[in-house]
Amino acid sequence: MEVVPETLGSVAEINAAMGIANRANLTLDELNDVDKREMFIQDQLGSVTKGIEIGIQRGIQQGIQQGIQQGIQQGIQQGLQQGIEQGIEQGIEQGIERGKIEGEIGLIMRQIVRRVGDVTMEIQTRIQGLSAAQLDDLGEALLDFTSEEDLIAWLDSAVG
């Protein structure tokens, strides 16, 4: 292409492009082909860039999703482990406490039998229902008992 149209002659970029085309010795058809190839390359570059962006976004979303799922699973496992440990610990403490109370009930029952004789099953059941503090009080009070009636009176006043 040798001539720049008069209306475009004042645009420096067009003059520079025409200079490059003239130096390359390209025909108008060849110049149009080069232009089309450049547009194709730009389109492909845009498609690749868009694909990379979409891939990055999907990767981030999958990473977040996996992180959340792993966090939840780890939280559940840790919670279960702590719950089991606390349950075992509480069970042991309650077992020890219950064992102490059972031992105290056994001792008190033997002392009552020695002090006032055999007692009914109903009285034994009432004694077994006493708290640890009430058992301590009964252990001290039974030293003054002389009959089953004293024991019943104490149970009535202590328990209500």
Q: Low-confidence stretches at least 5 residues in length (pLDDT < 50)? A: none
Q: Indicate the radius of gyration in whole angstroms.
A: 49 Å
Classification by helices and strands? mainly alpha
Average pLDDT across residues? 88
Strand content: under 5%
Q: What count of helical segments does DSSP give?
A: 5
Task: Describe the sheet with the most strands.
Answer: none
User: What assembly state would you assign to the polypeptide chains in this entry?
Assistant: single chain
Described by the principal axes of the CA atoms, the overall outline is rod-shaped
Describe this structure as you would to a colleague:
- The chain has five helices and no strands.
- Helix 2 runs parallel beside helix 4.
- It is 82% helix and 0% strand.
- The mean pLDDT is 88.
- The termini are far apart.
- It has 160 residues and is an all-alpha fold.
Layout of helices and strands:
Blueprint: H1 12-24, H2 28-116, H3 121-128, H4 132-141, H5 148-159
Helix pairs in contact: 2-4
Quick overview of this protein structure:
This protein is mainly α and 160 residues long. It is 82% helix and 0% strand. Helix 2 packs parallel to helix 4 (132-141).
Looking at this protein, list some descriptive labels:
single chain, 160 residues, mainly alpha, 5 helices, rod-shaped
